[in-house]
Amino acid sequence: MSQTTIVGVDGGATKVSAWQVIFDREKKMFCLGTAHAEGVYADIPGYVKDFKPVDVAIQFKELADAAIRPTRDEQQQETVYVEACARAIMRIARETQAASVIVGIGMPGLKTADMRGIHVVANGPRMLHYSDLLEERLQQEGMRLETPIARLGSDADYCGIGENYAEEGAFRTVDNAYYLGGGTGVADAMKLHGALLPFDQMKPWMAKTWEMQYEDGRSMERFCSASGIQSIYADITGKEVSQLNADKIFPPQIALRAADGDPAARETYDLVTSALSAIIYERIETLYAGWQNGFKFMNPNRPALQSEHEYLKTLLDRVIIGQRLGQLYNMEEATPWFAGPLREKCNQRIHASQTLDKKARDHYGDAARYLKASQLREAPALGAGIDAFFMWQNES
Known about the structure:
Low-confidence stretches: none
Structural class: alpha/beta
Order of helices and strands: EEEHHEEEHEEHEEEEHHHHHEEHHHHEH
CATH architecture of the largest domain: 2-Layer Sandwich
Largest sheet: 6 strands, mixed
Number of domains: 2
Radius of gyration: 21 Å
């Protein structure tokens, strides 16, 4: 493995972020290396600036009819996205002097049957041949793949993998934990009875955060993601998010404004901590006592959740706040507006619960004990690299 570099790639809406992932053979744990490269799609020749995704309803119909027809713009964007990823991987390979690479990639969207492409995605192009094209592009540059790209995973699953196998991972030393990561979107991960349990496997009895609707009708993703927090502040102040971006006003800066007495910033974080405490309580309650119809769904046609499951009466050792949300939780200046109120509101919900018994209420009585911020940088990229390494090991 001395000449082979593990590369984990987090594929987003505007760029890919690639990292060297290092496996410590003695400790049998993983960490990020120093090599890092980004590929910004808009920097690649041929990028379609005014690209508009195909309506999701049309995408699902074409999928159901087994007649997916990517548009010309989608095919062009696929070429651009692949090129951005290839360049990032090649930069890491050169920096680490790799003779070969093992590549893991996390991407949004519903994957093709072989998990190597994307056939439905809300905010980008459908890319049916992404992995094939990426492998071809790397080979053109003389880069040897130690093994073919096994699959395009989800950032949520990869956050869980990173937390479970990295030296600083918050899942590693406990048997039962929930992870809520907030960045551009929201990521859910769960470890129960000592094993990672993807949310797709819990679909009959537990919903993903983005599927649920808060009491004001907005998706819970708006309150649990960094971009969503920014959009809430924009709504309250009557500003455009683009203007906030230009002025470099992001969740940490909004917290500083709250400290300076900005009423809009304080209102933003009051809404955010109320919603976050609601989703955390729902996870605790659903796991221990089954689904109690605490939320409506963004999709009114989603099948009703089952109240029975095999993990009933399970108590979480930790609830982990990750990604940019975790950085905010750890930010000392933001504690009076974020971490502090979040813990207080979680405690209030637990103490007022009519569903949890005394054992559960005592266990969750102090949120400061079980609420923890993730210590991992770039958890999705780290998890992607770890997953690729394990897939390679299983094939060897």
